[in-house]
C-alpha cells in the first residue's frame, strides 16, 4: 500500500502553502488538522503529518513519536524507505479520521506520553485550549 497518495500529497502541499503565506504576511500560522497517520505495525514509531514544505516537498511537518512525542520534520522519502520486521514498510492508518487540529493531538500526546486517539484524552486536550 502506498503511504502518500497524490490526494494526501496535495493536501499536505495546500497546508504547507497556507503556513508559508501566513508567515509571509505576519499572521498566526494555521493549526492544521492532520492529513495522514503513519505507524510502525511492529513497534514504536507514529507520525501525524499536517503539511509539507512547498519548496521542499520531501520535508514533512507534524507530530512525531519515536522515543517521545514531539513536533518536528521528517523526510517523506525516508519514511517511505523504512523497513521493519520481515522487511515490511511503515503503514498508513486507513482508519484514522482526525477530528481536531494538531495542537489538540500534541496536548493529548504530552499527557499520555504517546500519540493517542483516545476520545477522553482528546476531549481533555480540547478543554485545555
Helices, strands, pairings?
Blueprint: H1 6-25, E1 36-39, E2 46-53, E3 56-65, E4 69-75, H2 76-81, E5 91-92, H3 102-112, H4 119-128
Antiparallel strand pairs: 1-2, 1-5, 2-3, 3-4
Helix pairs in contact: 3-4
Describe this structure in words.
With 129 residues, the protein is of the alpha+beta class. It has one domain. Helices cover 36% and strands 24% of the residues. The protein has four helices and five strands. The protein has helices at 6-25, 76-81, 102-112, 119-128, and strands at 36-39, 46-53, 56-65, 69-75, 91-92. A five-stranded antiparallel sheet has the order 4-3-2-1-5. β1 (36-39) and β2 form a beta hairpin. α3 packs across α4. The longest helix is centred in the first third of the chain and has 20 residues, at 6-25. The chain is globular, with a radius of gyration of 15 Å. The relative contact order is 0.17.
Task: Kindly list the characteristics that best describe this protein.
single chain, 129 residues, alpha+beta, 36% helix, 24% strand
Order of helices and strands: HEEEEHEHH
Structural class: alpha+beta
Strands side by side in the biggest sheet: 4-3-2-1-5
Helix percent reads 25-40%
Q: Give the number of DSSP strands.
A: 5
Termini separation comes to: 36 Å
Shape: globular
Largest pleated sheet: 5 strands, antiparallel
- Summarize model confidence as the mean pLDDT: 96
Radius of gyration: 15 Å
Give the uncertain stretches in residue-range form. Answer: none
Kindly give the count of domains: 1
- Per DSSP, the total helix count is 4
Strand percentage lies at 15-25%
Amino acid at each position: 500500500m502506498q503511504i502518500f497518495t497524490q490526494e494526501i500529497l496535495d493536501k499536505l502541499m495546500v497546508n504547507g502553502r497556507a503556513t508559508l503565506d501566513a508567515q509571509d504576511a505576519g499572521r498566526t500560522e494555521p493549526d492544521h488538522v492532520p492529513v495522514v497517520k503513519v505507524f510502525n505495525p511492529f513497534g514504536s514509531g507514529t507520525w501525524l503529518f499536517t503539511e509539507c514544505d512547498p519548496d521542499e516537498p520531501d520535508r514533512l511537518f507534524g507530530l512525531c513519536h519515536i522515543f517521545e512525542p514531539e513536533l518536528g520534520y521528517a523526510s517523506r522519502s525516508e519514511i517511505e524507505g523504512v523497513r521493519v520486521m520481515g522487511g515490511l514498510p511503515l503503514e498508513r492508518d486507513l482508519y484514522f479520521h482526525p477530528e481536531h487540529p494538531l495542537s489538540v493531538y500534541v496536548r493529548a500526546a504530552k499527557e499520555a506520553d504517546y500519540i493517542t486517539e483516545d476520545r477522553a484524552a482528546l476531549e481533555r486536550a480540547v478543554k485545555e485550549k
